[in-house]
Automatic annotation (TrEMBL):
Keywords: Membrane, Transmembrane, Transmembrane helix. GO terms for cellular component: endoplasmic reticulum; membrane. GO terms for biological process: GPI anchor biosynthetic process. The chain crosses the membrane at residues 12-31, 510-534. This is Uncharacterized protein. It comes from the Eukaryota.
Length: 575
């Protein structure tokens, strides 16, 4: 057998596969045609412009940037990474070979059993569990450890590649950063380290003094001018608290909240970003108490409200934390510009989606409660209750079924982004002002965004509504999704416009395959070099290998023959 030739042929097969899959994996947004939507809403053009950012020969404008065609606000929205850990590794949960240990104890009479029969019964029991639980659990634990390790890097690949390719200005992770609210503090810290140092490497926790409590409408967190100073916002990650991070209302304690906020950032805050208006004529039309008090035009502003909606519904375990959430919402509402003003836009980032009837999204209305012995709090919920959902639409956005309300009940512009439903969903919630005679005849109605668009509902008079985008999870089982929200300002209408697109890497198996093939190529290449060097220095590699193979073969033949003789002897003896 010619070893060098074998390795060479292997490399010949593996190298093209490795190159093709690696190029695809590392450039997946390119092959998927992903890009932040442009103000033209032309996805083809968006892709072409994004491509230019990465083409070294493309022309750049005088100030060295080529971003002027892009929307000034580009939010990379990632859903439910759910970093798992200890709690999904059986040997960590149950220990290593627990039933074998019990058998040993039983046989060494270190357990309490009344009778010998009982002792034998338990031992047999444990023996079965040893074979059917302990041993499979060992293999499952090894598999799971490898799986978890790879998963961190798979998710990291999405974050890193999307950042590099699509150039977001802001990044959010919409809750369920970790996979379980039941983990102890040490494990929580470990997952926090994996989150920051592995999966979202390069990302930064939002400093507490930047995550403001709503106070002053004129406090600005940042300016959307693309300057170097504002680049800090591309690193900061706006983390949302999810049920696996802090627990549902019935589990949410101050301790869980404290550790979440310490590791990932505050759970309730707002940020305000202003778009500079450089044109002096336009700038002069903006409301100003001294020079232009009559105007209804605000300086263009995007207000981001990050909200913990885990304890909006009742009963909640900690009334202190629930009061804090309600107080926060009230201060968000209290510090909003009047609904009659133009130029503002509110993005709510939260975890649990708002109420909608069953059948619209994968998740429908669902509630489960702890038993009263356990406090009776919310144990699980898929959606917020209809009442809690109104807090968003009627409270934060100020939309009202009552046409006599401020601003005719049309409310202020905004959008909700959330996670929780791993499959993702895109819906529109509205009230019909022409329905009936009063607000009591006008319930909130819910439809898919695609249907709303087909019927042109958002453009119709007397149908105020808001869109809610539930971003599909970035987990491998859901295709490694990333959401891209672009926002730009229409100076004629003096209002914000937006568009949203998804980008998917594909399932985790492809990531594994690519890295396995790459590893094999390296292995083959190293072996090949070793063999060639040995042969060059006069070692007969082929001959040696032949001898080794020959010896192994002889040993196997020998063993088989001996066993055959033994069996034959035994059978003869039994005659
Ligand atoms: C990340 O790793 C560095 C160095 O290994 C360490 O000093 C730092 O504390 C880690 N960060 C977190 C959030 O654990
Ligand atoms: C409008 O112009 C004034 C004076 O130049 C400036 O201070 C202000 O920031 C401008 N407004 C906006 C929204 O850019
Ligand atoms: C709104 O209500 C009016 C009057 O009932 C009805 O004709 C119209 O179809 C409704 N619009 C929608 C979108 O349901």
């Amino acid at each position: 057998m010619a070893v060098a030739a074998f390795l060479r042929r292997g490399l010949g097969l593996l190298v093209p596969l490795a190159i093709a899959s690696t190029v695809y994996l590392y450039l997946y947004p390119f092959f998927q045609g992903c890009a932040f939507p442009l103000p033209s809403r032309d996805s083809r053009a968006a892709f072409e412009e994004t491509k230019k950012l990465h083409w070294p020969l493309a022309e750049t404008s005088d100030n060295g940037t080529s971003m002027e065609h892009f929307a000034p606000f580009r939010l990379l929205a990632l859903g439910d990474p759910q970093l798992e850990g200890d709690t999904s590794i059986p040997t960590q949960v149950y220990g290593v070979l627990p039933h074998l240990k019990k058998i040993v104890k039983n046989l060494t009479f270190r357990t309490e059993h009344n009778s010998l029969r009982e002792r034998i019964r338990m031992t047999l029991h444990d023996t079965v569990d040893f074979y059917f639980e302990d041993i499979p659990n060992i293999f499952e634990s090894i598999r799971k450890r490898i799986d978890l390790f790879g998963n961190d890097f798979y998710l990291a690949h999405i974050y890193r590649t999307m950042n590099w390719w699509a150039k977001p200005t802001h990044v959010t992770v919409l809750g369920d950063l970790v996979g379980s609210q039941w983990i102890d503090d040490d494990e929580f810290e470990r997952r926090g380290r994996r989150f920051w140092n592995r999966t979202f490497r390069g990302g930064e926790r939002l400093p507490d003094d930047v995550a403001q409590y709503p106070q002053n409408q004129y406090d600005i967190s940042g300016v959307l001018d693309g300057s170097a100073e504002q680049q800090i916002w591309t690193k900061r990650i706006l983390n949302v608290a999810g049920n696996h991070d802090i627990g549902y209302a019935g589990d949410l304690t101050e301790e869980r909240m404290e550790r979440f906020e310490r590791v990932f950032g505050k759970a309730n805050y707002e940020l305000r970003f202003e778009l500079p208006v450089t044109d002096p004529e336009l700038n002069a039309t903006i409301v100003d108490d001294d020079t232009n008090p009559e105007s209804l035009r605000l300086a263009p502003e995007i207000r981001i409200v990050v909200l913990n909606d885990m304890n909006l519904d009742t009963p909640a375990k900690s009334s202190v934390l629930q009061d804090a959430t309600y107080a926060f919402i009230n201060s968000v509402i209290g510090n909003s510009h009047g609904v009659e003003f133009q130029g503002g836009f509110t993005i709510v980032l939260t975890h649990i989606p708002t109420y909608k009837p069953a059948g619209l999204c994968v998740d429908g209305p669902f509630f489960d409660f702890h038993t009263s012995a356990d406090g009776g709090g919310v144990k699980e919920q898929y959606l917020l209750s209809a009442d809690a959902s109104k807090g968003f639409f009627e409270g934060i956005f100020g939309v009202s079924a009552n046409t006599a309300a401020a601003g005719n009940g049309l409310g202020r512009p905004g959008l909700i982004l959330n996670g929780h439903d791993h499959a993702g969903c895109d819906t529109y919630h509205f009230v019909n002002h022409t329905n009936g005679t009063g607000p009591e005849d006008r319930p909130w109605q819910h439809t898919l965004w695609s249907d709303a668009q087909a019927q042109k509902l958002p453009l119709q008079e007397g149908l105020p509504g808001r869109r809610e985008i539930t971003v599909r999870s970035m987990m491998g089982d859901y295709g490694g999704n990333a959401g891209m929200l672009s926002m730009w300002f229409d100076f004629e209408k003096w209002e914000w416009q937006y568009d949203y697109a998804d980008c998917q890497l594909g399932r985790q198996h492809f990531w594994w395959l690519t890295h396995s093939v790459d590893f094999s190529v390296v292995l083959f290449a190293v072996l090949y070099v070793v063999v060639v060097v040995m042969e060059a220095s006069g070692v007969d590699v082929d001959g040696r290998l032949d001898r080794v193979v020959g010896r192994v073969r002889a040993w196997i033949v020998d063993e088989t023959r001996q066993r055959g003789t033994k069996t034959a002897t035994r059978e003869n003896g039994h005659k």
